[in-house]
Amino acid sequence: QVQLVESGGGLVQAGGSLRLSCLASGIIFRLYAMGWYRQAPGKQRELVATITSDGSTKYADSVKGRFTISRDNAKNTVSLQMNSAKPEDTAVYYCRASILSHEFWGQGTQVTVSS
């Protein structure tokens, strides 16, 4: 059974930092591309950052230079370091694992950035 469990969400002031983590189980983690997505109220889910199995990263323009995605294959974990947070970063953040046509999602963790 595949499980992706996010943690680390919460309330942070604008300009502050937060670190999200996603622990994966039930998959051969090192083979999967991993990603963070977010969905704000009334908006569609959007890509935040992705990291391939070989460590290549991609970021949404809105978070470039502020967020960093990383993975630890030994711990089956992908993380998102959020710095210089902005109120518009407020959303539910989801972890995604994908390989070929298969994808799995976590349940999400709420991030709220106060102004």
Tell me what the structure shows.
By secondary structure, the protein is mainly beta. 0% of the residues lie in helices and 56% in strands. The protein has strands at 3-7, 10-13, 18-25, 33-39, 46-51, 57-59, 67-72, 77-82, 91-99, 102-105, 109-114. Strands 2, 4, 5, 6, 9, 10 and 11 form a seven-stranded mixed beta sheet that branches. The radius of gyration is 13 Å and the shape is globular.
* Low-confidence spans: none
Coarse structural class: mainly beta
Level of helix content? under 10%
Q: What is the distance, rounded to the nearest whole angstrom, between the alpha carbons of the first and last residues?
A: 40 Å
Binned strand content: over 45%
Q: Summarize the biggest pleated sheet.
A: 7 strands, mixed
Rg over alpha carbons? 13 Å
What characteristic shape results from the CA principal axes?
globular
Number of strands: 11
Q: Residue-averaged pLDDT, rounded? A: 97
Oligomer: single chain
Short structural summary:
The protein is an all-beta fold. The protein has no helices and eleven strands.
Secondary-structure map:
Blueprint (H helix, E strand, L loop, with lengths): L2 E5 L2 E4 L4 E8 L7 E7 L6 E6 L5 E3 L7 E6 L4 E6 L8 E9 L2 E4 L3 E6 L1
Parallel strand pairs: 2-11
Antiparallel strand pairs: 1-3, 3-8, 4-5, 4-9, 5-6, 7-8, 9-10, 9-11
